[in-house]
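$ ./design --mode recover --in tokens.txt
reading tokens...
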């Protein structure tokens, strides 16, 4: 079964680049430009992973991570932030919001592939009590 990835990115060029790459990698891709759209997509057809930009216009993308982590069963969906904001304070805030990892922009696609494989595999190894085996 093809894994579903939700890309939450308001910049059209960045979104197109990520979506085209994910499609070429064999993922089923959904895209959202706002938190409202992302929440609706998560509720209607939960993704296997989320690629999330932190700065979505006036919205804070990390609000989606907090929202997902507060909900069953979406609390275990891997969230990888793809951001130009990669200073130490930003990284700490990203992890504290419930995200699993971050990849800085410009995107290193080898690193992104590695993170997706790592976290999708960790989710596959989650037992029925919601505990992760692995990272």
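writing sequence...
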């Amino acid at each position: 079964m093809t894994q579903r990835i939700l890309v939450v990115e308001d910049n059209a060029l960045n979104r197109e680049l990520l979506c085209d790459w994910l499609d070429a990698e064999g993922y089923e891709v959904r895209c959202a430009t706002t938190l409202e759209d992302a929440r609706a997509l998560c509720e209607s057809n939960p993704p296997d992973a989320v690629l999330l930009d932190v700065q979505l216009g006036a919205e804070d993308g990390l609000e989606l991570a907090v929202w997902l982590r507060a909900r069953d069963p979406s609390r275990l969906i891997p969230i990888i932030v793809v951001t130009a904001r990669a200073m130490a304070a930003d990284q700490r805030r990203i992890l504290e919001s419930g995200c699993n990892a971050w990849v800085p922009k410009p995107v290193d696609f080898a690193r992104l592939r590695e993170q997706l494989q790592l976290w999708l595999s960790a989710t596959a190894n989650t037992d029925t009590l919601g505990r992760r085996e692995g990272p």
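exit 0
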